[in-house]
Amino acid sequence: MRVVAILCWLLAFVAQPAWAASSPGLRSLEQQLAFLVATSPGDVGVAALDLKSGEVVSINGDEPFPMASTVKIAIAANYFAQVEHGRRSLDDTIGGRSAYRLIEAMLVHSDNYATDLVLRDLGGPQKVQDWLTQNGLTGIRIDRSIAQLLRARRDLRDVRDSSTPRAMIGLLQRLDSGQMVGPSSRSHLLYLMSRCHTGRNRIRGLLPIGTQVENKTGTLSGLSTDVGFITLPDGRRIAVAFFARGGTNRPRTIAEAARAIYDGFASAWRTSFTALSSQSQTPAFLPSH
Fold first, then answer.
1. How far apart are the C-alpha atoms of 145 and 148, rounded to whole Å?
2. Over pLDDT 90: what percentage of the chain?
3. CB under 8 Å to 180, separation ≥6 — which residues?
4. What 3-state class would DSSP assign to 207?
C-alpha cells in the first residue's frame, strides 16, 4: 500500500498537482507535505496560513473531516462574543460553575460535559452555526452536542460536525484578526489554548523546545485532529489545521506535518528576505561610459 501511495503521488505531481502554491518559496513545503500525506496510512488534511503575509499551503484542504473537540474553539469564541455584546458574562453561573471556568475546562482539559453546558446556554448547535454563517464562514458544520456525537454510530465520513482544513484556518484567522471577537476575548482565547494539556505529541510533538503554540486537539476512535497557532522565531504566527482519519500513528503524522510547516515557512521567509536584500543592493541602472 505504501508503494501504491508513493506512485499515486508521483503521478499526480507529474500530471497536475492538486494544490496551488501562493508563493514560489512555499513550493518545496507543499511537495514535502504532499509526500508525507501520500505515504501516511489513512486520510490526512493539512492547511497553514501565514497571518502576516496571507500565504497559504494546504493538502486536501477542501476535504471535510470530523472536527471532534476542535469545535470547542468555535463554541468558546461564540460565548466570548456574547459577553462583548452584553448578553452574557464570564461570571454567569452555568451548572454550578462560572462560564469562564467551564470554558477553561473545555479548552485546557477538553471537558465534554462543560462544553455541552456552554453550548446549551448559547442555545444549541444551530445558534453557534448561525453565528459562524453570519461571519461569512463556510465549510464548517456544527450539528450536534458532544454527547449526541459520542452516542451516535461512528462514521468518520459523516459531514455533520465537520470542517475542511481551509475552513478551520479561516476561522482561526478571523478570530486572531478581531473580526469575530475583540482584543480582550482574543487574549482570553489564546491564553486558554496555550495551556492545552491534551495531545502534546501532535502539533507540539516535534517543534523546538520553547516554541509558542496555542492549540486545541480532538480525538475520536480512528481520528486525531489538532488546530491552532504556531509562532516562528521571527515572531510571525502561522494558523494551522491538521486532520488525520484512519490508518495508524496519526499523532506522529500531525507532529511531522507541523514541524515541516514550521521549518518551511521559516525557510521561505529567509529566502524571500535574502532575495529582497540582494535586489536592494543592485543599482537601478548602470552608468554609461
1. 5
2. 82
3. 77, 81, 135, 171, 174
4. coil
Q: Which fold has domain 21-275?
A: Beta-lactamase (3.40.710)
The C-alpha cell 493539512 sits at 46
Task: Give the 3-state secondary structure of residue 287.
Answer: coil
Residue type, 206: L
For the chain, which residues make up each domain, given as ranges?
21-275
Give pLDDT, residue 268. Answer: 73
Eight-state DSSP code of residue 221 = T
Chain-centre distance for alpha carbon 80: 19
Q: From CA 222, how far away is CA 249, in angstroms rounded?
A: 10
Other beta carbons within 10 Å of 196: 22
User: What is the crossing angle of helices 112-122 and 71-84, to 10°?
Assistant: 40
3-state DSSP call for residue 12? helix
Residue with cell 516535534: 206
pTM metric for this prediction: 0.87
d(CA 26, CA 11): 21
Write out pLDDT tens, residues 136-164. 999 999 999 999 999 999 999 999 999 99
HEC secondary structure over 106-139: HHHHCCHHHHHHHHHHHCCHHHHHHHHHHCCCCC
Per-residue pLDDT at 127 = 98
Query: Could you tell me the CA-to-CA distances from 233 to 56, 173, 198, 211, 228 in Å, in that order?
Result: 19, 20, 24, 8, 17
| DSSP H helix total and E strand total for the chain | 10, 9
pLDDT of residue 102 exceeding 90, the answer is yes
Residues 6+ apart with CB under 8 A from 124: 145
Q: What is the C-alpha to C-alpha distance for residues 214 and 194, in angstroms, rounded to an integer?
A: 4
What are 34's three cell numbers? 504532499
Report the length, in residues, of the chain: 289
In this structure, which amino acid lies at residue 64? P
**∠ Cα 36 52 106 (to 5°):** 70
DSSP 8-class letter at 39 = T
